[in-house]
Amino acid sequence: MKLIHCGDLHLDSRMETGLSKEKAGERRLELLRTFTRMVDQAEADHVEAILICGDLFDAKTISARARKSVLDAVVQHPGIMFYYLQGNHDQNSFLSSMDTLPGNLRTFGKDWTSYEQKEVVITGAEWSKENKDAMADRLSLRADRTNLVLFHGMAAEYASKDQSETFSLRKWRGKQIDYLALGHIHSFRLERLDDRGVWCYCGCLEGRGFDECGPKGYVELEVQGGIVRPRFVPFAQRSLHEVAVDITDLLTQEEIQRRIRSELKGIPSKDLVKICLTGETELEAEKDPAWIQKWLEDEYYLLKIKDETTEALHPEEYQYDVSLKGEFIRLVLGSEELADEDKEAILRLGIHALTEV
Fold first, then answer.
1. I need a labelling partner for 132 at 20 to 30 A (CA). Which of 5, 173, 297, 354 fits?
2. Tens of pLDDT, residues 307-339
3. Nearest to 159 by CA among 129, 187, 192, 189
4. Cα separation of 243 and 272, whole Å?
């Protein structure tokens, strides 16, 4: 039996990544299309169930297009059973207007609900501040069944009561769980839960901002003879990359250009890229982030430049100068009240200011 574990799709998200209005609209459509592509792929791969672990949508108010597209994907694939667990961004907007649910759509409430499908038992409950601490104690599963458990929250070894979105893993051990399917965190992660089972964040299907870089997709589960074998499947239409480029000691724009080219090698033009310039640069270096932006922006779907460089300090070169700069450096270095790190910061600002004069 094959299943898919997905979550955190955030359909109808505003896509606030610095995109133009047109591209933001395009990316919203791409998120929706990635979901429907996944469902089509599931049918082609003979998947029998899709587990949606929260945050299918991004807000209470969603577009009719997004709602109808999701419903159509469910209805047009009657051979796949959809298990939909709402997350903290889902607020009944998908289901509240429906009198009758499609026959192949299953939902969950605030207490544990279980469904049997072939050789597995799929159990889930929607997270809330009120029930999160008690859910593990109230979970009762049969040891002779293959148990898949759905939950939307942040896993930690220990969690205090004031960590409202975090639950403690230690309370879930020894509960006869074979696979704990989690949502809420947007990067794939698979870890051992106990001697019997594992816990897994599936991540999101598409990255929306540069805090969601790297491969995105879903987890395919193959269940056979009581054994659950998870496999991460990259599936995003576009990926986001944050690339640090150290330009220390580079003096010309041509040198910086070659270094950037080298670091960007292999990134597809359809992707979104954020370049972070790092290192120490000399005052005379030909560093122009705006020029770099203009030079590269047509080569990628989105390109952003962030200058995180610092100017190299060489106070020893001016320490004996008969000049305002030399006097300033001698005054700062001779101070007994300033810590070394404070001296460096003051020298950096002062030398820059005096150089600009």
1. 5
2. 999 877 766 766 677 778 778 878 888 888 888
3. 129
4. 11
